[in-house]
User: Fold this.
Amino acid sequence: MSSELDALLRENRLFPPSEDLIKASNIQKWMERYGINDYDQLIMRAQDDPEWFWDELARELEWFQPYTDVLKWDPPHAEWFSGGKFNITYNALDRHVKTWRKNKVAYIWEGESGQVVKLTYHDLYVRVNQMANALRSLGVGKGDRVSIYLPMILELPVAMLACAKIGAVHSVVFSGFWAKAFQERANDAQVKVAITVDGFYRRGKVIPLKENVDEVLDGIPSLKHLIVVQHAGCPVQMKSGRDFWWDDITQEQEKECAAEVMDSEDPLFILYTSGTTGKPKGVVHIHGGYAVGTYTTLKFVFDIKDEDIWWCAADIGWITGHSYIVYAPLIMGATSVMYEGAPNYPQPDRLWKMIEDYGVNVFYTAPTTIRMFMKYGEKWPQKHDLTSLRLLGSVGEPINPEAWIWYHKHIGNRQCPIMDTWWQTETGMHLITPLPITSLKPGSTVKPFPTVKADVVDDAGESITEGGGHLVIKTPWPSMFRTLYHDQERYVEAYWSRFPGLYLSGDVARVDQDGYFWIQGREDDVLNVAGHRISTAEVESALVSHVKVAEAAVVGKPDQIKGEEIFSYVTLKEGYNPSPKLKHHLREHVRKEIGPVASPAYIGFVEDLPKTRSGKIMRRVIKAKVKGEDVGDITTLANPEAVEGLDHAL
Ligand code: PRX
Assistant:
């Protein structure tokens, strides 16, 4: 393996797609319609006239009233398809039940314990309508916010689509977060109704979500009602007048529900993501442009055909699931696999078994998952027939060439191109990505999607071709976020002020001599742990909220499987002493404040943290220490002896 890899890196070998794949691809057929001969011509034409490109694709969806302008761009404010009347759920469901797709399977859902449920477009349509009517009966209307705190069960997409159908704004909270995180997000969004579950399965254990939620409900003053899905059958307490069982509130409802006629720019959802402060950012996406952008990228990047089985093995609690498990595949009329549980449960071949069982054609996952399966070895995928696969995908963090090659060889049988897609919660859709007609280089996300102008710039905002720099996007795209929820100032400040008119992604990247992009990671204090975005400040504030902790510093340490691990150093308040028990308590505390994904892999107790004279914690120094690198110049520190203290941390 490693000699193969060395050769690969030396040669900078290109992996071209097969002629058959190119010929049959959606993008090739689309290009032929417009007399476009190849990828370079496509990029030129789309960059010359982005409005032509997006107008053509937007017309493939159904508008209640046509838009008057494709784009109005007053940086940093974009309006796409303005004047258009639209509803994303109408496009995901109502449009299909009028056609032969009515009885096509929309979701094949598999529970962790192996039960399977198949929902057709018509089944889903009815469930969504009944839920939408139920929400209306609770007084939820256009513009109201609804928090959805559900695991990977079918009620999750149903609830999202139901909100969107009546114009309510959903805010999904990842079920792996703990109730405090749910409370913080529900309060920020001022939600009227929340939807949760009695419990769900993870590695055979029941996680009692409703019981956790009960601890924080009184701390969400805007909340009027809680809807509870019965799933794990664990005992829960229901508060009369406030709490309703999902089945009780939906089953008597009408099976039809008229879609709210929305403006193209009306908000669709808020999804919280980590920024550089402890306060999560409420990223706002809208109906029209988000639908067009996600639909187009799924169609062209993952090349989904009507007969395909598509599996995006992410969690719907993150943007990947919003865009590519819920909205885009349904707008396309695709059949998706959805899985409730852990990927290596009960055995490390769960995913490969499911690919075989359902004949999955296109499979999308994260590098951290691939690295975990590399560790288990190729004997697990070898037990299964994976020849149904045509294309693979990767997202969430840089994929190291070794993992890329393993994925290509052992999952893709050396036949399947890997679409390494770069994008973010804020971008809504893939922005820098291969297409099935481009040649690949392992570890590179290839080139910007048609119409997207991405660049790498230095501190002065000048394009650079040597070395790494700030990854920026120079032109608007339809599914870009429109603002941060009730924090327009932070939207402008965090993304658009460093280089006015350019979108600052927060990533460092490099472009090679062929124009291929190589993403190197975040440039801010945001960690990427197993593909999850976690801010150091958020973990620090969780640690210092413990009664015994005075200060905390959190940094990332590179990890072979997870990408990064969370390392933390804490100082204790007077009168408290370090102990293994306290370490355990602090870990538990972070789990409860944020969730297991944020729990530090390492906690060290120190007397003092290295600080500048103005009192700012020097994370740079701590980071260097953790990585075993030279700490560099520490003469500006107020307390250089603290650096040595890190070595003796308990
Ligand atoms: O650092 C980049 C990394 O994930 C960040 C976005 O995280 P989030 O908003 O949670 O969305 C993840 C799913 C889209 C980016 O700033 N990232 C995402 N995709 C890639 C990536 N890094 C390298 N290669 C990718 N393909």
